[in-house]
Sequence to fold (182 residues):
Amino acid sequence: MISFDPGFSLVQRAKIGCVAGLVGGFAIFVSIFVIDLSMGSAQGSFYKIVGLAVGASGLEATLIGMVSHMLTASLIGAVFGMGSGLHKRLDVFFIKKGAIAGIMTGLVVFAVFFVPISIFVIMPIIQSGIVTGESSVLLANSNLILISSLELHVVFGVVMGAFFAIAIQVESKAKFTISREA
Fold:
């Protein structure tokens, strides 16, 4: 078993976590477009609905949704990174532990944020008919969307957690090498 004391501050962990969150967000980015395609809805419908919730329309709504999704992923990663430094048992150094912690994070985010936002914000927008032409497709596939979203949150968590662990290992080795040379 490897013994280590990486000595990362919460700010350093937040930065590494932010990047890990972005990597996880990009990992599911294409999948979201594939889900749109499989449902027969317009590409970017998921993101467009998020943008519509803040009052945008058309391409602007899609871009706002995409940027919001990636900002959320980076924020989740930053919180994940800081959380890993709060207690020795929460520390993520090995890929397996990172992936498991990431899965748990993805499930919590799904249950605490995604489901309520979907039910209380997104579904009313879809039901109001603001999303013309796509509303019926999205409503008819709402169960598929929820199941797919659960899977995507798990994938996000695995990628984010594993990437975080790898980044912590790399940074620890770099610190160790620098300290040995000094």
Observations:
- Residues 95 and 162 are 5 Å apart (CA to CA).
- Residues 142-181 form the longest helix (40 residues).
- Residues 10-174 form one domain.
- Helices lie at 10-39, 45-53, 58-83, 95-128, 135-140, 142-181.
